[in-house]
Amino acid sequence: MSADRVDVGGRAGWRRLAAAGVLAAGMAVLTALYVAPGLAEVPSFAAAPAVQACEPTGFLNANGEPVSSPELVRMNSNSYLRALVCDPSVLTSAAEGTAARGVGARLSVYLGTEALFDEPVAGAVELALPVQGPRWLVVAFTNDLYEPPEDRNLVLRDLRLVPLETR
Questions:
Q1: Residue 22: inside a domain, yes or no?
Q2: 118 within domain boundaries
Q3: Are 118 and 150 in contact (CB under 8 A)?
Q4: What is the CATH number of the domain that holds 157?
Q5: Domain span including residue 38
Q6: How many domains are there within the chain?
Q7: What pTM was computed for the model?
Q8: What angle do CA 55, 33, 81 make, to 5 degrees?
Q9: Which of 42, 46, 102, 139 is surrounded by the most beta carbons within 10 Å?
Q10: How many whole angstroms separate alpha carbon 44 and alpha carbon 136?
């Protein structure tokens, strides 16, 4: 066994180590979201351990828990979702944002470090973004504002990763 490898239960152990690295990166992002004033940064999972055997995760919330209902995801504060993309797919969703101070909810979608969509949404927008892995996909709401009676929020409906048919 080499010095840079720790056997923690075979293949499942490696997944636990990779998940721990992702969770540590997520905690750093959440700290920045709540400590840093102004516009929050989109989380980057570029520093996460390299993906060796890609197993799709489905959408996970900022705590690393599976999203219980991708049919309706309400983001009422700065937050993000992530999914490990293994095969060529299309990210689809209907996003609805509310405006505060005349600025819509910023929806940021990144595949690794590549921005696929990064714009304020005031009203509704349909997304159909091609993605290819193995890389982390991050969907984030980064400019929450609550100044009664205004409340900037983001709602994602029917959030899906639809695999492309192989030919």
A1: yes
A2: yes
A3: no
A4: 2.60.120.680
A5: 10-163
A6: 1
A7: 0.70
A8: 25
A9: 139
A10: 9
In a domain, 5, yes or no: no
The length of the chain in residues reads 167
pLDDT tens digits for the chain (167 residues)? 433 333 334 444 434 434 444 444 454 444 444 333 344 556 655 545 545 678 889 999 999 999 989 999 999 999 999 999 999 999 999 999 999 999 999 999 999 999 999 999 999 999 999 999 899 999 999 999 999 999 999 999 999 999 987 53
42 is a domain residue = yes
